[in-house]
Amino acid sequence: MSQFLLLLHDPVDSPLLSMSPAEMQEVIERYSAWSAKLAAEGRIAGGNKLKDGTARHLTKLGAIDGPYPETKEIIGGYFLIEAANYDEAVEIALSCPHIDFGRIEIREIEVI
User: Fold this and answer.
1) Are residues 1 and 89 in contact, defined by beta-carbon separation less than 8 angstroms?
2) Which of residues 76 and 62 earns the better pLDDT score?
């Protein structure tokens, strides 16, 4: 099995921002059920929501706060999954609830 990182991209005007607490709880339950199913299948190695407002961009010149107002989207979280190949990772990603709210970037982990 290979490992793949699913980066969850959120548009800055995400529909999640305008949800009521009850609607947000339903979304959280969808994510929890999805990740529990993957865990039961032995396909998830980790994942978390990233804390809002804590991004820093680093260069040799130093750290810069971000994301910026002109940013069109932010990375809101990630899952680390295991799949036999890229096609299977895509299939798993397409079943993730996040696909209803943003986009998912899939990156295979290269073990060096």
Assistant:
1) no
2) 76
